[in-house]
Design goal:
The complex is a heterodimer of chains A (225) and B (80). Chain A has 225 residues and is of the alpha/beta class. Chain A contains 5 helices and 11 strands. Chain A has a single domain, classed as Class I glutamine amidotransferase (GATase) domain (Rossmann fold, 3-Layer(aba) Sandwich), CATH 3.40.50. In chain A, the strands form 2 sheets. Chain A has a 9-stranded mixed sheet with strand order 2-1-3-4-11-10-9-6-7, sandwiched between helices. In chain A, strands 5-8 form a two-stranded antiparallel sheet. Chain B has 80 residues and is of the alpha+beta class. A 3-stranded antiparallel sheet of chain B has the order 2-1-3, covered by helices on one side. The chains are: A alpha/beta (225), B alpha+beta (80). At the A-B interface, loops of A face α1 of B.
């Protein structure tokens, strides 16, 4: 059984979606963990779900990074534990410096809620190993601050270390927010942490239009079994 | 004692909000604007502490939370 911790901050709103999707996968056991907790050692995987933690006050994710649970996330990350941050979860991982770069306002400053498609850039990771080669993944985005920014040096580093996880592809309308290099998700150098703006947990059942998102969760389970 | 903190995007960081507001001003007939950038202004009020202490607390607050060193710069003034 792969044990998933789904972190819950004040303002998280994709936590139940993530729970339901993970609960439906054979071999996975999800549990909610409130942000005031300070130990995650019993879990195999940590999910930081989407939402508006602390109302996005100051900067998205800026205040959540000081929640007690984030100390546990940082210490587990150093042990190589698998951590996925989705949307606001990605923003929290960036603010906590567990992932490089920055996320700023979308081009056009609009909240974008639509279906996009993704190209996978590295198939040899805990998050992508079950994705068929060249398959485009369709899933929704829903964010205002998803415009990924990196310095020239960082871009070189991301490319050299294969840290770009997903890019927006033209099949789903291309880059929706102005991210550099069409980046939709990145790994840390060790590839045990993934942050992505699109929502795989909202595209994990065909009745919702796509189940491509479940490939990411299935990859994680395959990797941690 | 009051600290006035100004937080701005670094040079070269895209500011879509500033661009949009700049274009909005153009669209209502206000000419001559080449670029517009939006930052944040924050005030902190202190009780009875020294100016040096207020400055160090303000600086620490900016470094640890108020500004994101990846994308933003800050400066502040402490007034008695």
């Amino acid at each position: 059984m792969t044990k998933f911790a789904i972190l819950v901050f004040p303002g998280s709103n994709c936590d139940h979606d993530a729970y339901k999707v993970i609960d439906n996968i054979e071999g996975a056991n999800p549990k909610f963990v409130w942000h005031k907790e300070n130990n995650l050692s019993e879990y195999d995987v940590i999910v930081i779900p989407g939402g508006f933690s602390y109302g996005d006050y100051l900067r998205a994710g800026a205040i959540a990074k000081f929640s007690p649970i984030m100390n546990a996330v940082i210490s587990e990350s150093k042990k190589g534990k698998v951590i996925i941050g989705i949307c606001n979860g990605f923003q929290i991982l960036i603010e906590s410096r567990l992932l490089p770069g920055a996320l700023i306002n979308n081009n056009g400053v609009k909240f974008k809620s639509k279906e996009i498609s993704l190209s996978t850039k590295n198939y040899n990771t805990a998050f992508t190993n079950q994705i068929p080669k060249d398959k485009k993944l369709f899933m929704p985005i829903a964010h205002r601050k998803g415009n990924y920014r990196a310095s020239d040096d960082l871009i070189k580093e991301l490319k050299d270390n294969n840290q770009i996880a997903f890019t927006y592809s033209k099949e789903g309308g291309g880059n929706p927010n102005g991210s550099c290099l069409d980046i939709a998700g990145v790994f840390n150098k060790q590839k045990n942490i993934l942050g992505m703006m699109p929502h795989p947990e909202r595209a994990a059942e065909l009745i919702l239009g796509s189940n491509d998102g479940s490939l990411i969760f299935e990859s994680i389970i395959k990797d941690t079994v | 004692m009051k600290a006035k903190i100004y937080i701005r995007y670094k040079e070269g960081i895209l500011d879509p909000q500033g661009k949009t507001v700049g274009r909005a001003l153009n669209s209502i007939g206000i000419d001559g604007i080449e670029d517009l950038r939006i930052g944040k202004y924050i005030e902190i009020l202190f009780g009875d502490i020294s100016k040096e202490k207020a400055e160090s607390v303000t600086d620490e607050s900016c470094r640890k939370l108020l500004a994101n060193p990846n994308t933003e710069t800050y400066h502040f003034e402490v007034e008695e």
